């Protein structure tokens, strides 16, 4: 597989000697135009890699914050086509910041999958995280994605023991996403020492960068978790900032875009200190 | 007419023709190809060649042709693989079969009778006129302990949970029949139990909520989505992923990630195996026609599976047509009104919009109000072995009343759908056609809902 934007970004950050900040927001949350402005401002605010959620009606691995984010986007009329257009528009202004689409399989499956991969690649997507497609089903989506030069990023979890880890790592590229808790997104805060041990264990088995996520809310937490890891993912905290900025009817306000970008600035500053 | 309920129920592994580890002589070579096993060409068609057998699935990765599989988050994968190993070990262990047989017999009340519904048969012969009108039997799984077929599966899975050393049980429920059965076996085995139930269903199935509370279960109302079975399943999966170390998830229907669809089917197939024996005893031959309702499809696959290779047996699954299939998002008929997709761990027919977002669907029956269906049913639909039809809320209500008045049996709203199809089908069949309908649940839980629809003052 040729070098992707994700590979290049991690190589550059490695030179700088700091961990990447990976930010998650849902495409179309709270509406397409506001989401476009958030996305557009993320690199300048300090996001090194952008995870963009593909909204789904039944986000089984997500906690209340991202569930609500997904539903806000769907309610405002978000579709997979609009999500890919959002990425294509972003690429016109930014040729370097990697974009990873994250979500669930069904909207991809019915797109259908092969066309989705073609369109995603054409739009400028760099990687995919599809929560409910395990390595056992690699031939469905992971291998065709790799064939098109898209990174397929897998989650490793506290339940991924030494028997399971090789299967998880086998076709993973770009980076490995270590889920720091057993649970849903935005749930309990991870125990830093345990995460460090687990990340070390994974890094002993792969040369790929390892990102840590699930339950990271503050700059302080991010900084603590970043030790020994290559990236920290923040999602629920950002979409919660969106939720708190909305008006009574759930519409975006003047405060919505700054609420997200200011939090990203804080997180980024913490990782750079 | 009926055999006395003296014979002991036997949960026979050998008799079940289980699919794993080459337990039969059927069609060993090329079996997976014939099932249309998934290949890397992202096939969207599922048209296998004519099959020598319909009972060999799933394959080792849990596929029934295109359908089934294991689409879950990585946190759950090790546990699902452990569950599969534990289930395979249990199937091979005579002690497991013995304990399950004992519980099914003396706790669950098996075998359930096969009852000749004489008055309904006569009534529908009157409707038919001439020499038409099938001879109708009810398989009376509503007489089981807890009032439905759900206990069959729960007894099997609670024994498995114990073998695996799990100390906490969770479940989802729609109508509450599965929730009650889970709460019951948890009380019996002294395990803490939490049941996820959509808020809408909590309201329309109050009697079962009260029963679960009395049995010591914690009922968690789920407010996301439309607050029905789909949302309850999402929430149960979120609990499982959080408490994976000590928790066993008793899925109530023949759906979800492999091995659940096959395992639940195996535990429910006692229904069909008993029907075979009981019909032989009553009539000296196998039935001609089988009818069962389909939500996720556990009672139906339990009745159908032991007959799939009996070519002469016509099989009908009845989906919930709600307000009618023509009403967008107004029904729960995923096979007649949906298309293949991936949800809750398996690929199967789903109610969804053009962008792959899952629809809520609608049915008067909480137990059928689910936008998916077990993957084996999806496969049986595509192979043509089973014919899937639908009936509306209104037809089910009419059948509910017909059965109550003619037979003195108050059916649950779920099998009332099967009854409604029987009322259409039986008058078209000859009088010597032996028809079996699975009376999979009793209607005590539904009397308030039905009274409301009928405008009765209670």
UniProtKB/TrEMBL annotation, chain A:
Its EC number is 4.2.1.20. It is an enzyme of class 4 (lyase). Belongs to the TrpA family. HAMAP family: Trp_synth_alpha. This is Tryptophan synthase alpha chain. One of its GO terms (molecular function) is tryptophan synthase activity. InterPro entries: Aldolase_TIM, RibuloseP-bd_barrel, Trp_synthase_alpha_AS, Trp_synthase_suA. It holds the Pfam family Trp_syntA. It catalyses: (1S,2R)-1-C-(indol-3-yl)glycerol 3-phosphate + L-serine = D-glyceraldehyde 3-phosphate + L-tryptophan + H2O. Tetramer of two alpha and two beta chains. It comes from Candidatus Filomicrobium marinum. Pathway: Amino-acid biosynthesis; L-tryptophan biosynthesis; L-tryptophan from chorismate: step 5/5. GO terms for cellular component: cytosol. The active site is at residues 51, 62. The alpha subunit is responsible for the aldol cleavage of indoleglycerol phosphate to indole and glyceraldehyde 3-phosphate. Keywords: Amino-acid biosynthesis, Aromatic amino acid biosynthesis, Lyase, Tryptophan biosynthesis.
Automatic annotation (TrEMBL), chain B:
InterPro entries: Trp_synth_b_CS, Trp_synth_beta, Trp_synth_beta/beta-like, TrpB-like_PALP, TrpB-like_PALP_sf. Residues 22-48 are annotated as: Disordered. It catalyses: (1S,2R)-1-C-(indol-3-yl)glycerol 3-phosphate + L-serine = D-glyceraldehyde 3-phosphate + L-tryptophan + H2O. Residues 36-48 have a biased composition (Polar residues). Gene3D superfamilies: 3.40.50.1100. It is an enzyme of class 4 (lyase). Keywords: Amino-acid biosynthesis, Aromatic amino acid biosynthesis, Lyase, Pyridoxal phosphate, Tryptophan biosynthesis. Pathway: Amino-acid biosynthesis; L-tryptophan biosynthesis; L-tryptophan from chorismate: step 5/5. The modification N6-(pyridoxal phosphate)lysine is found at residue 150. It comes from the Bacteria. The keyword Lyase applies. Residues 109-441 form the Tryptophan synthase beta chain-like PALP domain. Pfam families: PALP. The beta subunit is responsible for the synthesis of L-tryptophan from indole and L-serine. Belongs to the TrpB family. Tetramer of two alpha and two beta chains. This is Tryptophan synthase beta chain. It comes from Filomicrobium insigne.
């Amino acid at each position: 597989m040729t070098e992707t934007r994700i590979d290049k970004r991690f190589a550059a950050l490695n030179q700088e000697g700091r961990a990447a900040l990976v930010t998650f927001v849902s495409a179309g949350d709270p509406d397409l135009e506001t989401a476009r402005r958030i996305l557009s401002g993320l690199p300048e605010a300090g996001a090194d890699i952008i995870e963009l959620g593909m909204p789904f009606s039944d986000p089984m691995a997500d906690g209340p914050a991202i569930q609500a984010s997904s539903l806000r986007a769907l309610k405002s009329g978000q579709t997979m086509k609009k999500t890919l257009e959002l990425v294509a528009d972003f690429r016109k202004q930014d040729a370097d910041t990697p974009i990873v689409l994250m979500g669930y399989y069904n909207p991809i499956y019915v797109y259908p999958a092969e066309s989705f991969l073609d369109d995603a690649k054409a739009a400028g997507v760099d990687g995919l995280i599809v929560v409910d497609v395990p390595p056992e089903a690699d031939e469905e989506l992971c291998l065709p994605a790799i064939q098109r030069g898209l990174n397929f990023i897998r989650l490793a979890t506290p339940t991924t023991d030494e028997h399971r880890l090789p299967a998880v790592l086998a076709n993973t590229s770009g980076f490995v996403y270590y889920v720091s808790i057993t649970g849903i997104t935005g749930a309990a805060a991870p125990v830093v020492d345990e995460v460090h041990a687990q990340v070390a264990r994974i890094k002993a088995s792969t040369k790929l960068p390892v990102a840590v996520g699930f339950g990271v809310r503050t700059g302080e937490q991010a900084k603590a978790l970043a030790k020994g890891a290559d990236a920290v993912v923040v999602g629920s905290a950002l979409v919660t900032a969106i939720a708190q900025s909305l008006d009574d009817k759930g519409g975006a306000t003047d405060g919505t875009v700054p609420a997200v970008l200011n939090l990203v600035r804080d997180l980024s500053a913490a990782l750079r200190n | 007419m009926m055999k006395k309920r003296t014979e002991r129920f036997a949960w026979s592994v050998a008799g079940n023709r289980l699919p794993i580890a080459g337990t039969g002589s059927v069609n060993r070579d090329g079996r997976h190809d014939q099932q249309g096993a998934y290949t890397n060409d992202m096939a969207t068609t599922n048209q296998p060649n004519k099959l020598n057998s319909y009972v060999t699935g799933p394959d080792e990765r849990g596929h029934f042709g295109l359908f089934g599989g294991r689409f879950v988050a990585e946190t759950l994968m090790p546990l699902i693989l452990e569950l599969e190993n534990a289930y395979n070990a249990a199937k091979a262990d005579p002690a497991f079969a013995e304990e399950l047989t004992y519980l099914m017999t003396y706790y669950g009340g098996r075998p359930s009778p096969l009852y000749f519904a004489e008055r309904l048969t006569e009534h529908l012969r009157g409707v038919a006129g001439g020499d038409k009108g099938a001879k109708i039997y009810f398989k009376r799984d509503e007489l089981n302990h807890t009032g439905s077929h759900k206990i069959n599966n729960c007894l099997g899975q609670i024994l498995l949970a114990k073998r695996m050393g799990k100390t906490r049980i969770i479940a989802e429920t729609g109508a509450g029949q599965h929730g009650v059965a889970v709460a019951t076996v948890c009380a019996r085995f002294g395990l803490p139990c939490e049941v996820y139930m959509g808020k809408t269903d909590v309201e329309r199935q109050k009697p079962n909520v009260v029963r679960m509370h009395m049995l010591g279960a914690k009922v968690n109302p789920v407010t996301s989505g439309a607050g029905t079975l789909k949302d309850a399943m999402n929430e149960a999966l979120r609990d499982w992923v959080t408490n994976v170390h000590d928790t066993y998830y008793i899925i109530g229907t023949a759906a979800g990630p492999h091995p659940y669809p096959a395992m639940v089917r195996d535990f429910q197939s006692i229904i069909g195996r008993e029907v075979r024996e009981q019909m032989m005893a009553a009539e000296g031959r196998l039935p001609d026609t089988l009818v069962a309702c389909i939500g996720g499809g556990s009672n139906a696959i339990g009745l159908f599976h032991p007959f799939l290779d009996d070519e002469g047996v016509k099989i009908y699954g009845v989906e919930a047509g709600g307000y009618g299939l023509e009403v967008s998002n107004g029904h729960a008929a995923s096979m007649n009104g949906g298309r293949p997709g991936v949800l809750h761990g398996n690929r199967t027919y789903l109610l969804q919009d053009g962008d792959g977002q899952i629809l809520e669907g609608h049915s008067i029956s909480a137990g059928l109000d689910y936008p998916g269906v077990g993957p084996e049913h999806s496969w049986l639909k595509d192979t043509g072995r089973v014919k899937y039809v639908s009936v509306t809320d209104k037809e089910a209500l009419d059948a509910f009343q017909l059965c109550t008045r003619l037979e003195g049996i108050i059916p649950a709203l779920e099998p009332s759908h099967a009854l409604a199809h029987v009322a259409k089908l039986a008058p078209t069949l000859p009088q010597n056609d032996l028809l079996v309908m699975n009376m999979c649940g009793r209607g005590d839980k539904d009397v308030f809902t039905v009274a409301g629809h009928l405008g009765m003052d209670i």
